[in-house]
Specification:
The protein has about 130 residues and is mainly alpha-helical. It has one domain (about 1-120): Arc Repressor Mutant, subunit A. About 50% of the residues lie in helices and about 5% in strands. It is built from five helices and two strands; from the N terminus they run H-H-H-E-E-H-H. It has helices at about 1-10, 15-20, 25-35, 60-80, 85-100; strands at about 40-45, 55. A two-stranded antiparallel sheet has the order 1-2.
């Protein structure tokens, strides 16, 4: 989610990205740290406000994103093989309806969209989450 959003909206601040995808700002910092450690994104001081970090995709990040998108397209084609075009359209509409009723944010895993995420702690019962790349 973050990775894809940075690719489409390069140069936006971490705070702008957090607001756009409905995540707490502190969650973005940890996710961006992981993507930066992989060499997939780069933080740069914003031209308009040097106190703010702007996020950019690196060449290595673009290559990783291209591969992820290719695998995703192959997976989707495999999952929906056997559906006619009208059936696929109907499936997409129904899944969008379910997501809307559930209040899900498009492109954001529900576990990352938790408004209380900043106040919860890992008690050892759940594994730590790594950065999401899709």
């Amino acid at each position: 989610m973050l990775f894809r959003h940075v690719a489409v909206n390069q140069g936006r601040s971490q705070r702008e990205v957090a607001e756009a995808i409905g995540l707490p700002a502190s969650r973005i910092v940890a996710l961006a740290d992981g993507l930066e450690a992989k060499g997939w994104i780069q933080r740069r001081s914003s031209a308009s406000d040097r106190r703010t970090n702007a996020l950019f995709l690196t060449r290595k990040g673009q290559a990783a994103l291209d591969r992820i998108m290719s695998v995703s397209a192959e997976h989707e084609a495999d999952l929906t093989r056997g559906l006619e075009a009208g059936e696929l359209d109907q499936l997409i509409k129904l899944l969008n309806k379910v997501a809307s009723v559930q209040g899900l944010i498009e492109g954001v895993h529900p576990g990352f969209a938790d408004a209380n995420a900043d106040q919860t702690r890992n008690t050892g019962d759940e594994p730590e989450r790594g950065p999401e790349v899709g």
